[in-house]
Amino acid sequence: MKPAYREYLEQLRLSFPQPVSDPVHDAWFGRCVMHALEQVDALKNRTPVLGTPEDRSFMTSTECRIADEPIGLEETTTRLVEHLNGMFVWGHPRAQINVIPPPTIPSLIGGLLPSIYNANLASDESSFRVALAEREVTAIMADLLLFDPDQAGGVFTFGGTGTLLYAGKIGLEKALPGSSRSGLQGSGIRERAVIVCSDCAHYANRTVAGWLGIGDENVIEVPSTPDNEIRTCLLESMLRDVLQRGDKIAMIVATLGTTDAFGLDDLAEIREIRDRLVDEFSLDYVPHLHADAVIGWAWSVFNDYDFDANPLGFRHRTVRSLAGTKRRIRDLHLADSVGIDFHKTGFTPYISSMILVRDAADLARIARDPEAMPYLFQSGEYHPGMYTLETSRSGFGPMAALANLLLFGKNGLRALLGHLVTMAESLAEHLEGHAATTVLNSENFGPVTLFRVYPDGVDTFKAPKQELSNPAMRNELFRVNEYNRRIFDAIQSEALQGRGVVISLTDCYRETDYGEPIVALKSYIMSPFSDEEYVDAVLDSIWQARKRIGASL
Ligand SMILES: *Cc1c(COP(=O)(O)O)cnc(C)c1O
Fold it and tell me: What is the DSSP letter of 253?
């Protein structure tokens, strides 16, 4: 008689892709995926949210336990699909919430294939061609960003935060060689290290400073201009202060595409400042210059677009916007490394992020001692696992990225980004045309529009400037902040019922000159399905909300 466990085993074998060709089983595998898709489809409705609104509580989650018996593949799928209830549909034209794209079908397949066969990018031993995909994407991106593809190196990691972590690690090794081994306070190292970025840079800079042992107190935030760019003259004097104190610069971070406003730092100027200070202080290292372009990188497809002939036929305002972005993005090659999120402006699923370094030798600076990894790297020639933070590393990121780079080509990505920017421009135009609304980032040229809604009787030509600079306006600022929060709540509750558009709110789009937070409403258009009618819907939502909560403070 068969032992009982064999029954389980035989059942469970069916839940694995078959190791040798079995077309019938493959068809069933496909059916299982189809079945999941059908169940998700049943959750779609006209709102940008899957399923039905429900009580959002984690209360019962602690009651979950593993069952004694397997529940089978179908039931498992159903239970998983239930977990999508209440999710935003990022591809819905009524979802304008954040820099989160809907992923393309090829990028999903690109992610699925290495998952089925569990490619591990620690080395090229087990999955040479998936490792090759990482190298191919590196070359494509190096070329797009105007680096030398023969010299550049790149590695995929766990998000934009990961790209900053790698840059900081490389920068530390440049500023304090040997610090990986000895620690920041180890053999002979007693210096403080700092990370310098703008006050519009992402908070991930602080995270990374904490995790690297630099300490988040040692992140120096340089004030930005009203256009959300780092003030380069202040950057220079603040860097000079650091060097005069005898502290080390672990890295300088230029942000190209700030998260809330799409501000673009002047990388060319920053590079000049850095080089000048290296000479002036006769530094024995060159402070690492990293471009956090996790959002802005995609605009590199316009580096060689013919804006005069405009073969894709973008309207004038869009051309101006795209050219304005290109003006800064084409300088990305002046950085020592660049962070790229394909899962932001490259339309792949989470996670697909890479750090690109101008000089592949920079990655060798953070390599471990081969003797520490005796069971790895016995064959093959490409061993990113020697320097990656990760040990097991998925093929998901590079394959998803490669999928979209192949799918889109330059013109495809140009068309997508051009369309998103056109929609954002159209929204900004409408908002600027109305007395009760003001666009806050009208000099930033991305798919994101930050705006404020004012009650009646406020002079919206003067108020935004006064709020920004005049401390006597503090109370007025707070009241308008509160008014915008109420507008947001009203828009949100309607949108979740399927009326209007889901936008978002940022508690501090930037600080006023006197240090108070400016609340802003935010429309981030990332859906390829967006169109004029949904721009009108945003405006409609605003007027409806304004009517409902009243036009006075
Ligand atoms: C989103 C973002 C990050 C963090 O990237 P993740 O992929 O979310 O880890 C870093 N910098 C900027 C400018 C960002 O917008």
Answer: E
